[in-house]
Amino acid sequence: MPSHIKPAQPERRPRRKLQTPNPEVRERLTSAATQLIREKGFPNLRVEEIVEQAGLSVGTFYLYFDGKADLFVNLVSDFTEDLRTRMRAVYGTDRPAVQRIWEGLEVYLDFVEENEKGFLYFVDAADTMMTSEGRLSTWTFRVHAENLLPVLKEAMDRGEMKKLDPELTAQALVGLSQHLATYWIEHRERYTRRQLAAFINTFTGFGLAP
Amino acid sequence: MPSHIKPAQPERRPRRKLQTPNPEVRERLTSAATQLIREKGFPNLRVEEIVEQAGLSVGTFYLYFDGKADLFVNLVSDFTEDLRTRMRAVYGTDRPAVQRIWEGLEVYLDFVEENEKGFLYFVDAADTMMTSEGRLSTWTFRVHAENLLPVLKEAMDRGEMKKLDPELTAQALVGLSQHLATYWIEHRERYTRRQLAAFINTFTGFGLAP
Q1: Chain A CA closest to residue B139
Q2: How much is the ipTM here?
Q3: SS3 helix, strand, coil % of chain A, rounded to 5?
């Protein structure tokens, strides 16, 4: 879906908006870009290659995106929305709140594994990319933290979890999960996914005190 | 001090090494750059401004650095070394290992406060910058995790801390501290430093279980 979030620095003069953008055309462009990012990364990717892969013209590309940075922000926004939808499906059940939070971690690790290369490139680029909503990484952290917040508050209210500052707790869980998932992807030979998840569960559940 | 770590993509043809580099000249260049980064950030900074601030010539700059990226990697390396030295002073005492680890957190937060603007720019840029040692941020995380590792192992061996995978534990503490310090700097109006440190201590010490 089209995103309201934009690179902070416009890439070209404002384009005329399409009266009736075609979701299938946009999807062909984002799919082609996603595949090419998996194959060769983003920094060397050219708009010409994306449209060739999609079987479309450069002119069509610029009807849908202002340029490469705008496309990247849109991709991150799409993936963030996809992950958020999957998280909500878990967070919205009637199981104990703490259990839903741990299930959310598994959904997150599924997502990281499915999108391994894109995920690493996202981690690489999102901290530098300034958008209309601030740093792209700050925005994605905020989206995921906001998503987690009501479940955390519920867990705290029901005594399933310590009463700590809910916003800091959400940031801690989201930040820690992304950092350790990145470390894991970069050291797949050292840890299985099960070991990683078990570590995160113990560390965040019970801490380091003996 | 000169760094062995280099940007992955050389910025110019290899320069003739100075036979006897002058540490004072290098210091004038890095101090000028640090001050300018605090004032206006790094992306728009030009080599010409650095040498003007330092009262030196462009030619002299290129005797010491290959370009802006090389300068940035050198600055990060200097600051990392500074932080590491300060951490070692705390880690090397004979107080209980767990206490040394919490004291290390205070040293880290001192450092973040002193270098607030440079710290945020580092977080912005370090994930994208590829160096001879991999991603710059991966390198700094590794340096700090390696520094922390012996103290963690000591705490685990002495029963002052749960026996978990020491490498993952080090990454968890270093990654969590940087993420929450960034969040704190971006939301200074919401949390005092004392609140942040107390949260990190409780979360990492005892976890979220009630």
Answers
A1: A183
A2: 0.83
A3: 70, 0, 30
Place of tokens 């055309």: A25
Dist CA B142 CA B4 (whole Å): 15
Is pLDDT of A50 > 90?
Answer: yes
**Of A180, A160, A152, which Cα lies nearest the Cα of A87?**
A152
Lowest-confidence region among A2-6, A22-26, A156-160, B144-148 = A2-6
Residue position matching structure tokens 């440190």? B197
A131 DSSP β-pair partners: A7, A134
The answer, for A203 touching chain B at a CB cutoff of 8 Å, is yes
Length of chain B: 210
Q: What is the pLDDT of residues B67-94, one digit of tens each?
A: 888 888 888 888 888 899 999 999 999 9
SS3 labels along A26-80 = HHHHHHHHHHHHHHHCCCCCCHHHHHHHHCCCHHHHHHHCCCHHHHHHHHHHHHH
Q: Is the pTM of this model over 0.95?
A: no
Cα gap A17→B99, rounded to integer Å: 60
d(CA B127, CA B140): 10
Q: What per-residue confidence (pLDDT) applies to B21?
A: 85
Residues of B in contact with A190 (CB under 8 A): 167
